[in-house]
C-alpha cells in the first residue's frame, strides 16, 4: 500500500522526495517510540538517540508545512494528508479520511470528523449518519456523487469524541486548500463544530442556521449534523427546511 503511494507521488507530486523523507521519518519515530515503551526500564537509552528523536518529532511538522507550499492540485494534497503526523490522531487512526465526490454541483458539504465506519473504509459519511445524509440529499434531488463531502478533521478522534482545538488547528490548512481547489459556489456545514471552524466564531445552532454567513466570499449554510438528527428526530423538519433553502439557491430560484 505504501509502495503504491510512493509510486503515485513520484509520478504526480513535485515534492515526492519530501514525502519519502516524511514516511521514513515516521517509521524511525515509531521504532523509537516502541523501544522506549517496551524497554524503558530495562535498557539505558543513549542521550544522543533521545536527542535525535526529539529533533525528528519537532522537524516532522515543519516538513508537512513545507510540503503544503508546494501543492498545486487536490490529488497532491490528498497524498500529503495520507502521511500526515501533525497531531496525535495519526497514532490511533486506521485510515485517513480525506474526502470524496465531485464538483459538478459546486457544493461542498463539511462535517466535523470521521467516525468508526469512515476510519475503517477511508471514505466520509458511510455509517448510519452518512446513509441519512444520502437520503436527505436525494429528497431534494441532489445526487451524492455530484457533490463533494469532507470533514474538518481527516482522522477519527478516539471514541468519536469532539475534535480538540489543537487538532482542528493542525488540520485547518488541509481544509482551506481543499476548498481552494474545489472552488464551490456554496458550502453546507453540518453541525456546530464545522460551522465554528468555517466562520471563525462561536454561536448557537439557531443563530448559525438562521444567519447569513460566508467563508472567504463563499456562502455558508448551516444545518444539523445527521448524527444529531438520529439522536433527536424532532430536528429533522428544521433540517429539511434548511436543505430546501439551499436547493433553491443551487437551482438559481432565488433570483
Architecture overview:
With 255 residues, this protein is α/β, with parallel strands linked by helices. It folds into two domains: 2-86; 100-250, Uracil-DNA Glycosylase, subunit E (3-Layer(aba) Sandwich). The protein contains eleven helices and six strands. It has helices at residues 2-12, 16-39, 47-68, 74-81, 116-121, 128-139, 165-182, 192-199, 205-210, 226-231, 236-250; strands spanning 100-101, 107-111, 148-151, 186-190, 213-215, 218-223. It has a six-stranded mixed β-sheet with strand order 1-3-2-4-6-5, with helices on both faces. A hairpin with a 2-residue loop joins strand 5 and strand 6. The protein is globular. The N and C termini lie far apart (49 Å). Residues 1-14 and 39-64 have low confidence and may be disordered.
Helices, strands, pairings?
Layout: H1 2-12, H2 16-39, H3 47-68, H4 74-81, E1 100-101, E2 107-111, H5 116-121, H6 128-139, E3 148-151, H7 165-182, E4 186-190, H8 192-199, H9 205-210, E5 213-215, E6 218-223, H10 226-231, H11 236-250
Parallel strand pairs: 2-3, 2-4, 4-6
Antiparallel strand pairs: 1-3, 5-6
Give a quick set of tags describing it.
alpha/beta; Uracil-DNA Glycosylase, subunit E; 11 helices; 10% strand; disordered N terminus
Amino acid at each position: 500500500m505504501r509502495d503504491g503511494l510512493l509510486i503515485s507521488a513520484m509520478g504526480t507530486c513535485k515534492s515526492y522526495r519530501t514525502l519519502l523523507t516524511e514516511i521514513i521519518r515516521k517509521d524511525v519515530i515509531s521504532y523509537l517510540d516502541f523501544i522506549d515503551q517496551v524497554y524503558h526500564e530495562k535498557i539505558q537509552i543513549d542521550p544522543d538517540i533521545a536527542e535525535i528523536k526529539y529533533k525528528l518529532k519537532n522537524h516532522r511538522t515543519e516538513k508537512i508545512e513545507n510540503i503544503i507550499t508546494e501543492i498545486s492540485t487536490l490529488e497532491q494534497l490528498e497524498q500529503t494528508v495520507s502521511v500526515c503526523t501533525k497531531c496525535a490522531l495519526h497514532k490511533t487512526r486506521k485510515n485517513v479520511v480525506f474526502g470524496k465526490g465531485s464538483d459538478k454541483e459546486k457544493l461542498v458539504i463539511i462535517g466535523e470528523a470521521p467516525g468508526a465506519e469512515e476510519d475503517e473504509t477511508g471514505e466520509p459519511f458511510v455509517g448510519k449518519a452518512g446513509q441519512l445524509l444520502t437520503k436527505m440529499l436525494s429528497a431534494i434531488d441532489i445526487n451524492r456523487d455530484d457533490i463533494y463531502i469532507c470533514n474538518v478533521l481527516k482522522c477519527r478522534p478516539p471514541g468519536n469524541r469532539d475534535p480538540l482545538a489543537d487538532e482542528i488547528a493542525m488540520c485547518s490548512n488541509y481544509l482551506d486548500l481543499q476548498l481552494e481547489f474545489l472552488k464551490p459556489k456554496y458550502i453546507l456545514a453540518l453541525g456546530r463544530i464545522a460551522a465554528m471552524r468555517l466562520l471563525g466564531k462561536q454561536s448557537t445552532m439557531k443563530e448559525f442556521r438562521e444567519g447569513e454567513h460566508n467563508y472567504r466570499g463563499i456562502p455558508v449554510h448551516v444545518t444539523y449534523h445527521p448524527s444529531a438528527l438520529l439522536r433527536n428526530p424532532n430536528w429533522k423538519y428544521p433540517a429539511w427546511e434548511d436543505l430546501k433553502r439551499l436547493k433553491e439557491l443551487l437551482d438559481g430560484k432565488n433570483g
